[in-house]
């Protein structure tokens, strides 16, 4: 329905238009959420970020029919006194801002901890003091390792879901030792979750915490040397896309044995919209948002991406499509990994009736079609440039 007039919430009540202060709106998730809000709802968005490249198409005055409903504010929330005023102007604040790329966790642990904990503190405080609702983005990494990972490899209990399924209200958070700085991110996210929860318990803050499980799709991160630094290491979707575009082997860290469940960004954004528009069902909850049906090892992901990319690009795969690298070589000292991430869906199902829809093959097909269309020419140009002697 255009602009969402006459839309009802899950309990059949009309949804009132609201103003949303979205921090980190220029990132991967933010760009998809802004698009959804503009296309399908009447809500207004105050979009805060240091970058806006990924939402430029929503901001260009001539072309955008929603110029009235989205306003970009170039703000670094570390030090900008306009933040409190913008939180006050909105009915709801959504905080997405964070350093959230594993290559940063152990190489820039201080920035990671500051970004995920210290910089989020004023946002929580302003929401609490001004009685504003907050949707805070955490991560599935707060669960850390599964209990089953501590059992011997062939132990039968490893097959028991109680030893690996991750549940918001019962699973423990299991991190490695302090010198494994990979966990600086998860630990900072866990502490900010605890703070938000405590503001709810002691001061009545209306909050929802989202734990995304590997959301992937178009506009995720960057392709090194094209729209990001040549030496940069993005998340796995962009790393593997980069390798495929350049016809180089995909690098499997420590054998590619870790397991992940990947969810299509568009399915996940549906869940966030339900949270936004059903506060009575979402407030006070922590939600896993993932697709338990899309589990693969990283090696299987590499194999599937190679097949899908051949299909969408029409190019045959290279002879040795993958290569093993050690985590020390790839990420540096202090890297560790989550072994397996299966989200339990009971709470989000009960509260919001939401389920993911898109299979891994289908989401890779649409995502890699986008990657090929967006980057193939630029990569070709960059790689055919003569090397300066
Ligand atoms: N993508 C996923 O699957 C995933 C998984 C788990 C958690 N998350 C969480 O979701 C959130 C968004 O993730 P994303 O994938 O969109 O990441 P992203 O890096 O694409 O987006 C984050 C955005 O926040 C902005 N930002 C960072 N620090 C800022 C500051 N000080 N002031 C203003 N803007 C700032 C960045 O410029 C960026 O545009 C993060 O909190 C992340 O931890 C994402
Ligand atoms: O997306 C999520 O839910 C969360 O997980 C990610 O963490 P992770 O899944 O480890 O990050 P990726 O970079 O996507 O890596 C996934 C796996 O692929 C491996 N990998 C990555 C890149 C590569 O080129 N090769 C490779 O084998 C990594 O070692 C890891 O085991 C990030 O921490 C966050 O974006 C987020 O909090």
From TrEMBL:
Its main location: cytoplasm. It catalyses: UDP-alpha-D-glucuronate + H(+) = UDP-alpha-D-xylose + CO2; UDP-alpha-D-glucuronate + H(+) = UDP-alpha-D-apiose + CO2. Keywords: Cell wall biogenesis/degradation, Cytoplasm, Lyase, NAD. It is found in: Cytoplasm. One of its GO terms (molecular function) is UDP-glucuronate decarboxylase activity. Its EC number is 4.1.1.35. CDD domains: Arna_like_SDR_e (cd05257). GO terms for cellular component: cytoplasm. The keyword Disulfide bond does not apply. GO terms for biological process: cell wall organization; UDP-D-apiose biosynthetic process. Its cofactor is NAD(+). Residues 20-290 form the NAD-dependent epimerase/dehydratase domain. SUPFAM superfamilies: NAD(P)-binding Rossmann-fold domains (SSF51735). Belongs to the NAD(P)-dependent epimerase/dehydratase family. This is UDP-glucuronate decarboxylase. It comes from Brassica carinata (Ethiopian mustard). The lineage of its organism: Eukaryota, Viridiplantae, Streptophyta, Embryophyta, Tracheophyta.
